[in-house]
Amino acid sequence: MSLTHDAASAPSTPPSAGRRFRAYTSKHLDELTARAGLGTDERLAVRAVATVLPFRVNSYVIDELIDWDSAPDDPMYRLVFPQPDMLPEADVSRIADLLRQDAPRQELNRVANEIRAKLNPHPAGQMDLNVPKIGGQDPLEGMQHKYDETVLFFPKQGQTCHAYCTYCFRWAQFVGEPDLKFASGEVDHLVRYLKDNPQVTSVLFTGGDPMIMGEGVISRYVEPLLEVETLESIRIGTKALGYWPQRFVTDPDADDTLRLFERVVESGKNLAFMAHFSHPAELESDLVAEAVRRIRGTGAVIRTQAPLIRTINDESAVWERMWRTQVRMGMVPYYMFVERDTGPQDYFAVPLARAYEIFQGAYKNVSGLARTVRGPSMSATPGKVCVDGITEIAGEKVFMLHLVQARDADLVGKPFFAKYDEKAAWLFDLEPALGATHFPYESAPPADVSSLVDPARA
Description:
The structure is a single chain. By secondary structure, the protein is α/β, with parallel strands linked by helices. It has 2 domains: 3-117, no CATH class; 123-363, Aldolase class I (TIM Barrel), CATH 3.20.20. It has helices at residues 3-9, 29-35, 40-52, 59-65, 75-80, 89-100, 105-117, 187-196, 215-222, 240-243, 254-266, 286-297, 316-328, 345-348, 352-363; strands at residues 23-24, 57-58, 133-134, 138-139, 143-147, 150-153, 202-205, 233-238, 270-276, 301-308, 332-338, 374-380, 383-393, 396-406, 415-419. Strand 6 (150-153), helix 8 (187-196) and strand 7 (202-205) form a beta-alpha-beta unit. An 11-stranded mixed β-sheet has the order 5-6-7-8-9-10-11-12-13-14-15. It has a two-stranded antiparallel sheet with strand order 1-2. Strands 3-4 form a two-stranded antiparallel sheet.
């Protein structure tokens, strides 16, 4: 795109669009939750939850996305504000008592860390199973290599977001504990690893949110990759379109950022902008439409994804509306995820049977252009497992599943079956069906040889 022409032809943006970014953190919680109509005890419980899990929101979300007349039941409010019952009651009470006593920060952190340790802060073995090494010896910080063709990179300046989602599976990145963080500032290590591993064709910048970084910082990470011949695509995982679309329209470096996107595309590589939209409300503003138009004008492809979250988007009509709107705006629906087995999963998770019902209810009502979406998909230890349906085989009710991605690439696309369980909410809640003793990604259990022993010799 021509940015000069783009600026001249751009529609006028709302007066609020040019406001400077302002973040609200836990120190603002009491005031904001009072605005939502919460009583004193409820506000204290919210503060207790926010002592364990991260909270951050911004002026755009506060002023443009939340319907305060409907709070605290408004989906956008629930998307960013901790809920009093997101954690076990005993844990919330324990922290609340410390807050009432004005306990020292050190004591609060100690108790908060005890609670965090119970929340599976690093699901799918990401701290040890996915860490790549240079020369097979030196572990590379801030990188994950789970699937043959894709490497994830966590730039250290991108380990925060414009706002935090209450369901976020990367919550451990944001609680201020160094031992829980994945991050790296060593792009030269990434380049070396890519050259040593030519099977890697795609790099995903993630975090946090890479788009929290200014253009000058992003360029230092992205531009060296343009010289890696075996790299075919660069992906940027971001919530910025939903939480701060000004980043691509009115921020001081918006035009420079779009020029960087242009350079990626001009280099012959695909630039995939992995946009997270959790609710249709995030798509409604003129500012988002303009940001999408400008990003697409660079040649980047915007793909959309989000998890299915109880109390926020657990209705077929919500997903149908999102996918239809995204297609109309020129974006490509990509994934519906299942809430991962970390953090407040027990609060937000939707059972797999209900998840499939919601997915199918939306999927059947959209055109083929929106049926690029895959789901419900679980990003679990063996890979991305998709629930394809519920059926009956030989008198047994089963889930039909397959691996969209897998640590073992030979398993990709191969169907398998699990016993139907209406309460199962995650892969590890399931059991093999149809007489199988294990799933394809598991080793066969030891054979029971007791029946082969001659009773006379036992």
